[in-house]
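in:
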């Protein structure tokens, strides 16, 4: 149909009943048709234009008027079961062609669809629903509006036969009280000139016309033929000729044939129920519930037509020669006769009836009078006398529902509205429907009538604009509810179809979708599926399109199709929905769609597609373990069926999504050991930096550094181990069998070769028989590859069999360059194993570890080096244990190198062989004992890089490296906080306070030793150390211990301080003097040790000294880098020394019990400097002239970037990071006695210049007297007597003492520490011991005042 309005006009048009004699039917059978009704039926749609008048006598032109033709013996047509079977049949026929909806993902895809019909099977359904339903008492659309009585001239007595047919029609109307017996009758005399040759046609026709009114003569079958009936079943002696007229009968005959055969089977009881037909379409299943394939479903007729040959499907049936004896004149005459009958007689009769019923019945039922008449009867108010018949009451059928006779006012009103609707007078029809609706409303026995009127009210509102007062949804809901309550679901479906067609015609898709959804229910899966599918299309046609709702309703439709047994349509719906939901990360929706599609493909025999969909279910999702188990079992079952049907496919390899293997999890090594603490040791920036440092420190000038595109190098015959992690994302266990590598080799002629077999002439690949992974488990799998020739081998991926059934292959990803190895001549291979390496340590804990080095290659190795990314983390062992003393035990003076350097690589001592050479032969192993120490708490990633060379006699042999990565969890142990302050008693003394807290919760920590290392300071106890329990820290306990530092002055006259050396290096850096290398002399350090617990003396062990030195080096570089960010690490090493004069390193050595094992550790404090000023504070003043000169030189640089870098360097060097003045002042005085007069006491002020390089000029001024805390009020202040000022200068480390007199007038306690000092720091001038001339600079003045009081008591 071209539009919804045309569709409704086609199926809600006048019905003409036909009663034909057998001889008239023979004329139709001669043309391949079953009856005279079938002969004239197609011409009812070819009436064309008809002009009618509405109730106001306005002309209406109907462009495509049509009528329906039906045999009066078959007015019931088909019941609901027959219609449902026919719908199933049509859906099955469309399903054979594997229909598909267009792939739609977004709105742009919808725009490309235009207005094409996406569901032609729905068009068949709507036609069956609207056209195949028979007569009903509640409406008159299927009641004949006229009768055609047909006889032929071949009849012996045509007149009598026609009268008998009239009686038969009357009998039909008598048995059906709701049929109008006054419907006009039209007679037709059909004449076949080749059958009734001897009949006087004119005489017979005149005889009938005199007796029977409205009689017509129709001549047909003008094509010559014999008198026998041309029926294949009767065996015609001659074949029928080819038709010369258009075939207008095939469409009706094909539909009627299917419906008639289903109806015949239902009446004979030979067919099964619809449920059994659907169940017969289902595929058999195994005991486990899996589908069993029994042949191709694409050619199987899903719904068999009873009595029909299954080999001849509806789409393949031969075309009959309909109308083969019709000439073109016969065709035109038949069409003209029916058109004249309709336009001249039928339409005028209907208009006359409309006018009569409107005046006699409808007018009396409108308004208030009509309401009262319906309520209390017409006898009280009078009524029209024009009523043609006596009103009869309604009859109650066996179901308790009312049936109104034809002459009841209710049915007359309904007939009036239906006639008006069929003649397009929609305003009159709506008003009449609304009026008669009130008669049925509130009467439970008239629900079906109420549903019919509500249905037509909704349709009338849609057929014409501007009519109707209620809402469309209200009329629709009442109609559907009424039809369902009276078990008339076919009419409810028809209501939905009619309203949907008109809403679609008007473009109201948003309003149409809810109407379709309301008609979905459990009573009919097919109907629900069709309506849900149309709902989805409505959401697609809405602007803007609602794509997700479209997909959701397609899934609902597919589910209902599946329940109805229509697998192809279910597959089509879900496949269209998948296009919307895929790549949306809606895992549960995708899993449901993939599972359903896999199942439907299995039912349809498409096992390759079924396996494809089930593979998508093997992933990490929110499904339960039982669901994952079902996915795996069904996949295995489907694959077995697939390969049983296609044995040639058994060798094909699938790409499975499980287990998860990525390129980042595939380390390749030449050692068999699997690194359990790291996923993959791949070459990153950190490893590359360590490789460069190792080569510079250990092999520069001693080995060739050969790099081939970042590829790994192995030797011929040397096994290569590929260690990858396979993770099972499923919630059930999976099993991998026959696991082996797939590799390819390439050279100049075979580059890019594909995967080869596991064994070839170039390499051997070993397989792993089985690997089982539990739910969510990650398992490390090691595979071995042995190259046989020198060439590049690319490791492509891994081959395995899932569950021993499904062969699979997974690529290792896009990082193929990382998985390409270069095979060279035989070389050594170093296998490293760290024995007893802890996974968990305490911060500061020292642990002994054995490193086992094994040469698994074919050549000996030499020149082994080790490097760690954590400075101070590891050191080689000397002696038998951590407590092993050396010859330094008891010494208080140690000579150390004061050269600042970055922690270098460690040379490993290999076993000694003949002639004193050291190497590790092939197949041999050696053990290296080391100590490791974690500096801070946290998670550490310790990288160990080992380098070695092949012992092949070549001095410049290529070196190889081995990498090892370990993760360590470092727990907190001890918190240490140090506080220093100058002593108030001595000039060369500082007080040290150590706050110690045990951070452990379950063990005691013993403080064994407090050790300091400094050039000029010694650690002394403030009080004598008593019992050892003072050194025990209970869990979470905090304690504070106090010590004192004493200054030691034992330097010789030619001693050059590290500060002076650093300043001269800075001077050379500023002046660009790079000729003289920076070589600071060794520095004599003084070791102080206070033992608090035990007698271990670990501070003298070489391991402790090495680790403390490494910690000092690391802290020093970190400190200088933050203070001088403009200096590079190499510049820092060439400018600064490791120690300054007043630097002090404090080490706390502790121990703890861990079961039978004794934990030992140490904490270092490296940031203490006991100078009162910054180490370089006084010397920086002398650099200002040099800095000015250096900036001028930098300004002449060629590039602006160089200028900025040079000036930033100078600014950084001149940055004052000092603590203040180097002058210390101590005021001392004695207590006095007041004897009835002022008390005069001497007050001594000691002044010391603590600077080691600068002279200080000072000016001391005593402040005003203080008001003491007197015993007698009022208080009297004390006064200074005599000189209150003093000036002078002090050389480096020079001291002086000045005595002043103070007078106290009364008894009391007085603060005598009241003074102000101005100190001017002179820069270094003249020739220093290094004989370098330093320009004169300006002085720096520092003001100093006392910070704490000094009390004297006057009694």
């Amino acid at each position: 149909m071209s539009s919804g309005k045309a569709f409704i006009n086609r199926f809600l048009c006048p019905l003409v009943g036909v009663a034909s004699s057998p001889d008239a039917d023979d004329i139709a059978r001669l043309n391949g048709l079953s009856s005279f009704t079938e002969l004239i039926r197609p011409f009812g749609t070819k009436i064309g234009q008809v002009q009618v008048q509405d109730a106001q006598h306005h002309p209406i032109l109907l462009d495509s008027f049509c009528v329906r033709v039906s045999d009066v013996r078959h007015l019931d047509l088909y019941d609901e079961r027959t219609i449902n079977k026919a719908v199933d049949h049509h859906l099955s026929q469309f399903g054979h062609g594997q229909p598909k909806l267009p792939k739609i993902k977004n709105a742009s895809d919808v725009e490309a669809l235009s207005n094409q019909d996406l569901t032609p099977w729905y068009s068949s359904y709507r036609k069956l629903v609207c056209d195949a339903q028979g007569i009903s008492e509640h409406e008159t659309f299927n009641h004949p509006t006229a009768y055609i009585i047909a006889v032929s001239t071949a009849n012996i007595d045509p007149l009598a036969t026609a009268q008998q047919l009239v009686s038969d029609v009357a009998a039909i109307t008598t048995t059906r009280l709701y049929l109008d017996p006054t419907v006009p009758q039209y007679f037709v005399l059909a004449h076949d000139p080749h059958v009734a040759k001897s009949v006087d046609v004119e005489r017979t026709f005149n005889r009938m016309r005199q007796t029977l009114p409205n009689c017509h003569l129709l001549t047909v079958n003008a094509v010559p033929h014999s008198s026998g009936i041309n029926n294949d079943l009767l065996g015609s002696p001659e074949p029928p000729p080819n038709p010369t007229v258009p075939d207008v009968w095939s469409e009706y005959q094909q539909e009627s044939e299917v419906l008639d055969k289903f109806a015949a089977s239902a009446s004979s009881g030979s067919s099964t129920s619809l449920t059994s037909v659907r169940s017969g379409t289902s595929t058999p299943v195994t005991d486990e519930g899996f589908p069993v394939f029994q042949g191709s479903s694409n050619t199987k007729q899903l719904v068999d037509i009873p009595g029909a040959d299954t080999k001849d499907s509806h789409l393949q049936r031969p075309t009959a020669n309909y109308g083969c004896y019709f000439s073109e004149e016969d065709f035109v005459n038949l069409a003209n006769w029916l058109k004249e009958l309709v336009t001249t007689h039928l339409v005028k009769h209907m208009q006359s009836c409309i006018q009569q019923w409107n005046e006699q019945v409808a007018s009396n039922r409108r308004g208030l009078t009509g309401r009262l008449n319906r309520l209390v009867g017409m006898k009280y108010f009078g009524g029209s006398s024009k009523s043609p018949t006596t009103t009869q009451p309604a009859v109650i059928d066996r179901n308790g529902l009312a049936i109104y006779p034809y002459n009841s006012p209710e049915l007359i009103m309904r007939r009036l509205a239906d006639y008006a609707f069929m003649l397009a007078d929609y305003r009159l029809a709506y008003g009449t429907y609304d009026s008669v609706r009130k008669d049925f409303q509130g009467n439970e026995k008239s629900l079906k009538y109420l549903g019919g009127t509500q249905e037509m009210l909704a349709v009338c509102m849609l057929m014409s604009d501007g009519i109707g007062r209620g809402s469309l949804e209200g009329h629709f809901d009442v109609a559907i509810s009424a039809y369902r309550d009276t078990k008339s679901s076919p009419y409810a479906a028809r209501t939905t179809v009619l309203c949907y067609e008109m809403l679609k015609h008007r473009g109201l898709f948003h309003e149409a979708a809810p109407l379709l959804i309301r008609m979905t229910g459990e009573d009919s899966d097919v109907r629900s599926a069709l309506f849900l599918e149309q709902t989805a299309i409505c959401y697609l046609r809405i602007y803007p399109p609602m794509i997700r709702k479209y997909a959701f309703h397609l899934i609902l439709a597919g589910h209902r199709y599946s329940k109805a047994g229509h697998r192809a349509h279910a597959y089509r719906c879900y496949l269209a929905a998948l296009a919307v939901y895929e790549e949306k990360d809606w895992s549960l929706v995708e899993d449901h769609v993939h599972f359903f599609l896999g199942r439907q493909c299995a039912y349809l025999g498409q096992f390759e597609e079924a396996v494809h969909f089930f593979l998508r279910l093997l992933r990490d999702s929110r499904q339960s373990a039982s669901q994952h188990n079902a996915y795996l079992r069904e996949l295995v079952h489907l694959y077995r069926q697939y390969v049983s049907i296609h044995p040639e496919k058994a060798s094909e390899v699938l790409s499975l999504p499980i287990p998860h293997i990525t390129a980042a999890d595939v380390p390749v090594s030449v050692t068999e050991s699997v690194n359990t603490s790291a996923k993959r040791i791949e070459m990153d920036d950190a490893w590359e930096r360590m490789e460069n440092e190792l080569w510079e420190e250990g092999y520069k000038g001693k080995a060739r550094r050969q790099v081939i595109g970042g590829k790994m190098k192995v030797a011929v015959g040397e096994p290569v181990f590929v260690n990858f992690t396979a993770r099972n994302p499923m919630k059930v266990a999976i099993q991998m069998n026959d696991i082996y590598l797939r590799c390819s080799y390439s050279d100049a002629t075979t580059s890019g070769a594909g995967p080869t077999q596991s064994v070839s002439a170039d390499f051997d690949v070993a397989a792993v028989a089985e690997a089982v992974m539990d739910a969510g488990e990650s398992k490390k799998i090691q595979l071995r590859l042995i190259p046989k020739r020198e060439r590049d081998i690319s490791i492509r991926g891994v081959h395995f069999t899932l569950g021993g059934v499904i062969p699979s292959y997974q690529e290792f990803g896009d990082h193929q360059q990382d998985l390409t190895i270069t095979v060279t001549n035989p070389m050594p291979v170093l296998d490293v194993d760290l024995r007893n390496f802890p996974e968990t340590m305490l911060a500061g804990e020292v642990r002994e570890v054995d490193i086992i080095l094994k040469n698994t290659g074919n050549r000996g190795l030499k020149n082994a080096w080790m490097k760690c990314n954590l400075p101070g983390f590891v050191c080689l062992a000397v002696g038998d244990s951590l407590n092993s003393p050396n010859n330094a035990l008891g010494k208080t003076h140690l000579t150390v190198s004061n050269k600042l350097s970055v922690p270098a690589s460690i040379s490993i001592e290999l076993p000694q062989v003949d002639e004193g050479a050291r190497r590790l032969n092939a197949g041999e192993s050696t053990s290296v004992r080391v100590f490791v120490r974690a500096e801070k708490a946290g998670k550490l990633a310790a990288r160990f890089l080992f380098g070695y060379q092949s012992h092949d006699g070549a001095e410049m042999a290529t070196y190889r490296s081995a990498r090892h990565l370990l993760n360590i969890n470092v727990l907190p142990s001890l918190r240490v906080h140090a506080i220093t302050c100058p002593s108030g008693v001595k000039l060369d003394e500082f007080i040290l306070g150590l706050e110690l807290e045990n951070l452990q919760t379950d063990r005691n920590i013993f403080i064994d030793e407090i050790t300091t290392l400094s050039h000029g300071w010694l650690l002394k106890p403030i009080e004598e150390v008593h019992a050892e329990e003072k050194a025990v820290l209970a869990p979470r306990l905090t304690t504070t211990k106090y010590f004192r530092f004493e200054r030691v002055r034992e330097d010789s006259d030619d001693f050059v301080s590290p500060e002076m050396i650093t300043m001269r290096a800075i001077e050379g850096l500023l002046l660009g003097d790079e000729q003289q290398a920076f070589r600071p002399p060794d520095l004599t350090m003084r070791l102080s040790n206070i033992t608090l617990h035990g007698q271990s003396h670990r501070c003298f062990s070489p391991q402790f000294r090495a680790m403390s030195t490494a910690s000092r080096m690391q802290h020093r570089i970190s400190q200088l880098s933050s203070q001088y960010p403009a200096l590079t690490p190499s510049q820092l090493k060439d400018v600064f020394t490791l120690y300054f004069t007043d630097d002090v390193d404090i080490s706390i050595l502790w121990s703890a019990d861990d079961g039978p094992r004794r934990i030992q550790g140490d904490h270092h404090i490296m940031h203490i400097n006991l100078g009162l000023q910054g180490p370089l504070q006084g010397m920086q003043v002398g650099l200002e002239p040099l800095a000015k000169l250096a900036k001028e030189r930098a300004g002449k640089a060629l590039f602006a970037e160089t200028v900025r870098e040079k000036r930033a360097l100078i600014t950084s060097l001149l940055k004052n990071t000092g603590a203040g003045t180097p002058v210390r002042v101590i005021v001392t005085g004695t207590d006095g006695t007041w004897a009835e007069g002022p008390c005069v006491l001497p007050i001594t002020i000691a002044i010391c210049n603590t600077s080691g390089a600068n002279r200080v000029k000072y000016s001391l001024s005593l402040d005003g007297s203080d008001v003491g805390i007197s015993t007698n009020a009022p208080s009297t202040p004390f006064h200074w007597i005599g000189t209150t000022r003093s000036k002078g200068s002090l050389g480096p480390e020079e001291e002086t003492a000045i005595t002043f007199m103070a007078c106290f007038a009364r008894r009391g306690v007085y603060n005598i520490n009241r003074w102000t000092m101005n100190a001017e720091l002179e820069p270094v001038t003249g020739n220093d011991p290094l004989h370098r001339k330093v320009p004169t600079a300006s002085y720096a003045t520092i003001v100093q005042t006392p910070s704490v009081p000094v009390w004297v008591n006057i009694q």
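note: DSSP finds 31 helices and 51 strands in the chain.
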